[in-house]
Amino acid sequence: MKNNGIMVFLETMHRYNTVKINQVFTAEDGTSLSIRCLIGTYTFEITNSQTQEVIQNDSIEETANYIGEFIASHDLTLNS
Fold this sequence. Notes:
It is a single chain. The protein is α+β, with helices and mostly antiparallel strands. Helix content is 34%, strand content 25%. The longest helix has 14 residues, at 60-73. The protein is globular, with a radius of gyration of 12 Å.
């Protein structure tokens, strides 16, 4: 998924922040990155299954960069 595609779905999550939308990226080794927009807010919650790290931020750009770094570090193919 190219950065533009990442930005589009993050903007969609922001727009529809009154419903539960969760996006999960899973590498072949089972490591996953889960992203959701907290209900009724513009805050993204990012959870890395490998490190158990949970990050919250309000920036679409920062969240997109975090996702891009995860994809790059796990050699996932960018298709879209």
